[in-house]
Design a protein that fits this description.
Blueprint lengths: L13 E7 L4 E7 L4 E7 L8 H18 L10 E7 L5 H8 L7 E5 L1 H10 L4 E6 L3 E7 L2 E6 L11 H16 L7 H9 L4 H10 L2 H5 L2 H9 L3 H23 L5 E4 L3 H4 L5 H4 L9 H13 L11
Parallel strand pairs: 1-4, 4-5, 6-9
Antiparallel strand pairs: 1-2, 2-3, 6-7, 7-8
Helix pairs in contact: 3-12, 4-5, 4-9, 8-9
Length: 308
């Protein structure tokens, strides 16, 4: 473990942004003027799975960023951190993380969707739809914030990787049992489980959202090859995504950015009427987290770059 920094050249404070989702947790460390000092990553950090499950990943990503910056962990005491974590939409989860005794000078906790929206639009009005292991739409207009989804794939998270993966397994099992048309895709999914439904049962009993979502890239890969079943699943996901985007528009969103690991795979399948209202995010979720860390530190904002 690195030792604490004692050099007089050490900056007075550091800013740490963390983006924790259902598949991975990322961290970015900067100095007071916004220079990136180090980045790190770790496994999933989803508060809905419990603080004991999320906290080790959060701290592992943070330590990785400090190590990448050649800073000792003692520098955490001079760090203002903003943690944007999946599941922090639930206030008791947010408060639990706030009071977890983290070693930072200050701790701000938000949901991963909140920091993603800030990264995409800054202080301007706008909306985002995160499409990853889970999914959530979030719109900010003035002081009004509205959310759609984000309540977990068992009851929410339309178009998410976890739901797409679960649909893939169910559809492949139906094909295996002669209840639906098979395809090269359904055969590939069954091969994962050695063509034995009993293996699916055992796996699914303990599968986490990220495990279900691990099948999503295979769905898009086979859809790109024209597989009828994979295309059917993708189009069902697109219908769900479009419904969320249309609801955001109904609520007043004029600018919407789609973000997350499935944003690009979904894009070619979205209808033109939806593509026409999408806007590229100005920055990523970690930039949104760092913006909030900067505010907590009382550091002047970085001057905005002119738009091209």
């Amino acid at each position: 473990m690195p030792t604490s920094d004692t050099s007089s050249a050490t900056p007075a404070l550091y800013l740490l942004g963390i983006d924790g989702g259902g598949t991975a947790c990322r961290a970015r460390l900067t100095d007071a003027v916004g220079r990136v000092l180090g980045e790190g990553s770790a496994g999933p950090a989803n508060l809905t799975l419990g603080l004991d499950a999320a906290l080790p990943a959060i701290m592992a990503a943070a330590r990785s960023a400090f190590s990448a910056a050649s800073l000792g962990y003692g520098a955490m005491a001079a760090t203002h951190a903003c943690l944007g974590i999946a599941g922090a939409i639930v206030m008791k989860h947010r408060q639990g993380l706030m009071h977890a005794g983290l070693p930072f000078r200050s701790v701000t906790v938000r949901s991963d969707a909140e920091i993603a929206r800030l990264g995409a639009h800054g202080d301007r009005d706008g909306a985002i739809l995160i499409l990853g292991t889970g999914s959530q739409g979030l719109m900010a207009t003035g002081d009004r914030i509205c959310t759609i989804g984000g309540w977990g794939f068992d009851s929410s998270d339309s178009g998410s990787g976890a739901l797409l993966g679960r649909a893939a397994v169910r559809r492949s099992l139906l094909a295996h049992e002669g209840m639906a048309a098979p395809s090269s895709f359904t055969a590939a999914v069954m091969e994962r489980f050695h063509r034995d439904p009993a293996n699916i049962l055992e796996w699914a009993t303990n599968a986490l959202p990220r495990d279900w979502a691990s099948l999503a890239p295979e769905v898009f890969e086979h859809a790109g090859r024209g597989d009828a079943v994979a295309l059917e699943l993708v189009r069902a996901g697109v219908d769900d995504v479009v419904r969320v985007l249309e609801r955001l528009i109904e609520m007043g969103a004029a600018k919407i950015s789609i973000m997350g690991g499935l944003a690009l795979p979904y894009r070619p399948y979205l209808p033109e009427r939806i593509l026409s209202i999408l806007t590229e995010p100005r920055g990523d979720a970690l930039e949104g987290a760092l913006l909030l860390a900067r505010r907590a530190a009382g550091v002047a904002p970085i001057a905005a770059q002119p738009q091209s």
